[in-house]
Amino acid sequence: MNAYQHFSDPEWDGEPLEEEPCAKCGQNPCECEYVPPKPCDVCGQRPCVCVKEPPEECPVCFRAPCICKKKVKVKVKLKDGKEREIQHMMSTSFWSSDGRPISAEEFMNNLFGELPNLFKSESELRTLWSNPLTRRTLLEKLDEAGFGKEELTILQKLVDAEKSDLFDVLEYVFNSEVKPITRWERVAAAEKTIFALLDDSQREFIDFVLTKYIETGVEELDQEKLPLLLTNKYHSFEDAGEKLGDLSKVRDLFIEFQQYLYERKVA
User: Fold this and answer.
1) Domain annotation covers residue 53
2) Strand 83-87 versus strand 73-77 pairing type
3) Which conformational region is residue 177 in: left (phi greater than 0), alpha (psi within -120 to 50 degrees), or beta?
4) Domain range holding 100?
5) Is residue 109 part of a domain?
6) Cis (ω within 30 of 0) for the bond into 65?
7) Shared domain check, 170 and 122
8) What is the DSSP letter of 66?
């Protein structure tokens, strides 16, 4: 018994070694099994010392946190018997002209019922939209009917076409078979035809205009935006005149190139 004691010889083995600290936690004994809570994402302290405010309610879906980023598609049937695909949104996001909350389906049907009073065909819509003067008149009539800038912006979100031209959105509501394309796709399809008619200076300016159009939307093509576009590009009307010549002709150019931007492309 106790034979192991005969093998315990401090003079031979030396003093017993102390265990080294853990390489991860630096403690002896190891404390890795204890995982402390992470610092707060807001104040960086542990435990948290800040007052966490609840997320703000989304003005579109009226949820906190917002669920708009989760694009849930549903289909609504309009009065033509055809379906339009939209994002699922709360009914209280939409209002009738008399201030009554309505569903997305009723919102779409109201617009669908109004469009034939403004144009009779896709071809007529394209003609009206291709000219900044008649386009403004059309937008004013839509506003009078209860579909102003705010409502049309909601409409773009509703059909998941925020990067599209409003023309494509109206065309889609009018005819479900025509899916919206992005503004970038519209420019890419038309720029060869547009640039073929221009000299180098004109091409440089119209390219600048198209870049702004892609970034912001059709409002960049309004005739009232032309002076601002010229000064943004050339810093002054004098410099613009030196580059482009007679500025009254630049106005004509600004109007004329848009017909090619909205021209129907034959597949």
Assistant:
1) no
2) antiparallel
3) alpha
4) 73-174
5) yes
6) yes
7) yes
8) -
Length of the chain: 267
Q: 126 and 143 share a domain?
A: yes
Q: Which amino acid type is present at position 60?
A: V
**Per-position b or e across 108-117, b if 16+ CB within 10 A of its CB:** bbbbbebbee
Structure tokens at 149: 């800038």
- Residue matched to tokens 């038309």: 190
Q: What is the pLDDT of residues 47-103, one digit of tens each?
A: 676 655 556 666 555 566 665 555 556 666 666 767 677 765 544 467 777 777 777
- Beta-bridged to residue 94, according to DSSP, are 102
Kindly state whether residue 77 falls inside one of the protein's structural domains. yes
Q: Are 84 and 172 in contact (CB under 8 A)?
A: yes
At 9, is the secondary structure helix, strand, or coil?
A: coil
Mean pLDDT of the chain: 80
Q: How many domains does the chain have?
A: 2
Q: Is a pLDDT exceeding 70 seen at residue 125? A: yes
Q: What is the pLDDT of residues 197-243, one digit of tens each?
A: 899 999 999 999 999 999 999 999 999 999 999 999 998 889 988 88
Six-digit token pair at 236?
A: 């002054």
Q: In the listed set 121, 149, 174, which residue is the last one of a domain according to the structure?
A: 174
